[in-house]
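Review form for a predicted model. The reviewer records the input and the model, then writes brief findings.
Reviewer: anonymous (R2)
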Amino acid sequence: MKILFGQEYMNTKECADFIGCSIDTLKRYVKLTKKKRLNLPFTQLVQGGHLFFRKDLIEFWKETRTKQASEVKNV
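Model under review:
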């Protein structure tokens, strides 16, 4: 985990572990976000194309998805 401008950033492996999915699934989420079908918060460097994920935004995203899934199950 890296700290930049007072924010914690995770690389792809750290983020996949954090949200409980494989790296391939996380990369699929990124592709879906680029196609505007999902709203995963990430930053991609221009050179090298490395992906980084801000921990606080991923926590919020994860909570929101969990809440939405439970609401669907309760309907």
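Findings: The helical segments are 12-19, 23-34, 55-73.
Further findings: The beta strands are 2-4, 7-10, 43-44, 51-54.
Recommendation: see findings above.
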